[in-house]
Each structure stands twice: as structure tokens, then as C-alpha cells.
From TrEMBL:
Pfam families: Aminotran_5
Coiled-coil blocks: none
InterPro entries registered for this protein in UniProt: Aminotrans_V_dom, Aminotrans_V_PyrdxlP_BS, Cysteine_dSase, PyrdxlP-dep_Trfase, PyrdxlP-dep_Trfase_major, PyrdxlP-dep_Trfase_small
A Gene Ontology molecular function term of the record: metal ion binding
Keyword vocabulary terms for this entry: Iron, Iron-sulfur, Metal-binding, Pyridoxal phosphate, Transferase
Family: Belongs to the class-V pyridoxal-phosphate-dependent aminotransferase family. NifS/IscS subfamily.
Catalytic activity entry: (sulfur carrier)-H + L-cysteine = (sulfur carrier)-SH + L-alanine
Keyword Ribosomal protein carried by entry: no
Keyword Metal-binding on entry: yes
Protein name: cysteine desulfurase
Lineage top rank: taxon: Bacteria
Enzymatic class: transferase
Length: 389
């Protein structure tokens, strides 16, 4: 029997029914503009403030340090461009990041480079891990910010952000971390990590799309990215996305209670998937760090098949996964992450990422393994890439 199995939770997640329920009144009865002082506005503003508290509690931050944005992309843009603009005259024009960041971080760094900034890209090892000592070496008196993600969304590698923060703070350099794929999978306590800025996104944690959060530690120099009215302490203008905010608040409240037990289950399923694939398919490589890796993410390279073809053939059998290449002009290009970790040639264009979620079952995992074996076998039979083929 054909099943429909969603194994692409690092791309997006379904909305939790409890999140849907929390949002519902804001789609109908509670419609005021939260900036207005009448009761219609106030009841909406109260919902927003409750959500701010829910997010703050999950991150172990103060509510005043939580800012709602249009998503992880905006939060990352704001952290980088906002701190850069606040400090360029006082300190300099140098930013440090890694080559395996999300496009929103790499794009922001690239923009600053075009504006004359100096950008240092930290080396990563074969697992994608940044060496904190490389951060120490890259810091100059002009460095205003270091941005290194907490966990990579493709290969799942977890970065030593706490150690990076310790070194940066010795040199009075601020640290931002993109915790979008880490949220709900590993601890993201801003006090433990010590970060000055942190990004999360709603739709990766069972809240709606188009909502994100930037945690900004009190006292961090930053200017607005979006100018306008006095919303959100004058730092992020625009009438709030109330639906999204209520949703991400509820999602954070749920995760605070449940993430650890979710992860224990997901990790077992993930291990079952990896064992199955590695046992039943030859010439497969598991990318990312063996242990310092998100408990829901498996990033494989399957030699002698092409990633996009694998993705599409799995999709025909009802299985949704991601391939690691952006297909530009018909030629598949390995992602910056895959390039940076130095995946050997035969494994470079054949990547496939499985990212599990709370809803997955053992039966789904077993079906995915069975289909993978069948599809890879079929693709290899017709592959021009196979040895001697
Ligand atoms: C999805 C993602 C983002 C972008 O978040 P959006 O809310 O989709 O804009 C940023 N960083 C990482 C690591 C992501 O996986």
C-alpha cells in the first residue's frame, strides 16, 4: 500500500492543533489593532504580550528582549544589518560568520561586503563544525559581530556556540546565533548559551509561516531594519502579525513542556532510519557529525544516483524529503554547506535529507527504508554514473 510520509520537517512543519485552537479567536472575535487604546485594541495587545511571555519563558529570556518579525529570514537580516549599522562608526566594519549558514545570513553578509565591509568566513571541518579557536584568530579591533548558527538545517551539525560566545565576550564582540533548526530539538537557553541575539522561526516549530522572533539581549546596540511607527519599543515597526504571534507563543509554551520527550522518540525513529538505510544500501555516506547532530536529521549521500532524481522518485512513492542542491539553470549545484564540508566528488550531487517530526511513526520509517532501497536500486540500474556503467 502506498503511504504518504512527510520527512521534511527542517523545511516546514504542520501547525499543532493546539496552536490552531489558540489562534482561532483572533481570526474572528478578537480583531482590534493592538496599538489602539480602546478595549478592542487592548484585548489584542494582551494576547501579544502573553505570547511574548511564552516565547521568553521558552528561551529563558525577559519578555522585553523578544521581538516579533516576519520570519527567521527577517530576524537574521535584522540581527546582522542592525548591529552592523549601530556599531560601524564606533567600532569598524568587520563581521565573522561561517560558510554553512542559512541563505538569509550569507545573503546579509554578502550585502555588507558589497557595501565595503570585511567579512571573515570561519573554516569548518569535515563534519561542518567551527573551531572556536578560529573565531579567536579572526577577531580584530574592528569586529562588530560573530554570527554562527546553533545547528545546521541541512546536515544537522551542532556548533559550539557557548565556547564561541566565551571567546567573543573576552574580546567584547557580540554574538548572534540562528537557532531556527535547533529550536525544539536541543536546548536553546539564552542564558546558558550567553548569546546576545538569537533567531527562531514559527513554521519550523508547528506555528504558522511568516512569523519569527529575534531575541535581543537588553543593552545590545541595534538599529531598526523596518522603520515606521512605535510598535515593539520603536525597534520593529508595523502592525503586528497577531495570528502568527499568538501561534508562535503557543508553540513555544508547548515545546517548553514537551520537547525533551518528543526528542527521545524522534531520535529512536531517526536511528532506526539510519540503521535501515546504511544496512540495506551500499555506497551510502551519512554526512554531518555522528553525535553532535540534531536528533531529527539524517543527511545522506548516495553514490551513483543524482539527488534530484532520488527526491522525485521518492515523491512518486509518497515520501517527502529534501535534496541538498539548488537546481540553477538545469545544472545541480551542491549547497554551500555540502561544498564547505568537502564531500567527496561521487557523493556531492547525490544528497538527500530526511528530517523527522513528532508525527512520524515506526511504520512510516520502515516504509521509507523499503522505498529508498527499491528506488536507489532502480536508479542505479539506469545510472550513467555507476562504476563501469
Ligand atoms: C528556515 C530557516 C530560516 C528561515 O526562516 P523563515 O521563517 O522561513 O524565513 C533561517 N535559518 C534556518 C537555519 C532555517 O532552517
Amino acid at each position: 500500500m502506498k503511504m504518504r510520509v512527510y520527512l521534511d520537517n527542517n523545511s516546514t512543519t504542520p501547525i499543532d492543533p493546539r496552536v490552531k485552537e489558540a489562534i482561532a479567536p483572533y481570526l474572528t472575535d478578537i480583531f482590534g489593532n493592538p496599538s489602539n487604546l480602546h478595549s478592542f485594541g487592548r484585548e489584542c495587545a494582551e494576547g501579544i504580550e502573553k505570547a511574548r511571555e511564552q516565547v521568553a519563558a521558552f528561551l529563558n529570556a525577559k519578555p522585553a528582549e523578544i521581538f516579533f518579525t516576519s520570519g527567521g529570514t527577517e530576524a537574521n537580516n535584522w540581527a546582522i544589518k542592525g548591529v552592523a549599522a549601530a556599531l560601524m562608526l564606533k567600532k569598524g566594519r568587520h563581521i565573522i560568520t561561517s560558510p554553512i549558514e542559512h541563505a538569509s545570513v550569507l545573503g546579509s553578509a554578502n550585502y555588507l561586503a558589497e557595501m565595503g565591509w570585511q567579512i571573515s568566513y570561519l573554516p569548518v571541518d569535515a563534519y561542518g563544525i567551527v573551531d572556536p579557536e578560529a573565531v579567536r584568530k579572526a577577531i580584530t579591533p574592528q569586529t562588530v559581530l560573530v554570527s554562527v548558527m546553533l545547528a545546521n538545517n541541512e546536515i544537522g551539525t551542532i556548533e559550539p556556540v557557548r565556547e564561541i560566545v566565551r571567546i567573543c565576550h573576552e574580546h567584547e564582540v557580540l554574538v548572534h546565533t540562528d537557532a531556527v533548526s535547533a529550536a525544539g530539538k536541543i536546548e536553546i537557553d539564552v542564558q546558558n548559551l550567553g548569546v546576545d541575539l538569537m533567531t527562531i522561526s514559527g513554521h519550523k516549530i508547528h506555528a504558522p509561516k511568516g512569523i519569527g522572533v529575534l531575541f535581543i539581549r537588553s543593552g545590545t546596540p541595534i538599529v531598526p531594519l523596518i522603520h515606521g511607527g512605535h510598535h515593539q519599543r520603536g525597534l520593529r515597526a508595523g502592525t503586528e502579525n497577531v495570528i502568527g504571534i499568538i501561534g508562535i507563543g503557543k508553540a513555544c509554551e508547548i515545546l517548553k513542556e514537551e520537547w525533551q520527550q518528543n526528542v527521545a522518540r524522534i531520535r529512536q525513529l531517526r536511528d532506526r532510519l539510519e540503521k535501515g538505510i546504511l544496512a540495506r544500501i551500499s555506497d551510502v555516506r551519512l554526512n554531518g557529525h555522528p553525535e553532535k547532530r540534531l536528533p531529527n536529521t539524517s543527511h545522506f549521500s548516495v553514490a551513483y544516483v543524482e539527488g534530484e532524481a532520488l527526491l522525485m522518485n521518492l515523491d512518486l512513492e509518497g515520501i517527502a524529503v529534501a535534496s541538498g542542491s539548488a537546481c540553477s539553470s538545469g545544472e545541480p549545484e551542491p549547497s554551500p554547506t555540502v561544498k564547505a564540508i568537502g564531500v567527496p566528488e561521487i557523493y556531492r550531487n547525490s544528497v538527500v535529507r530526511f528530517s523527522l517530526g513528532e508525527e512520524n511513526t515506526e511504520a512510516e520509517i520502515d516504509y521509507a527504508v523499503e522505498v529508498m532501497e527499491r528506488v536507489v536500486k532502480r536508479l542505479r540500474e539506469i545510472s550513467p554514473l555507476k562504476p563501469g556503467g
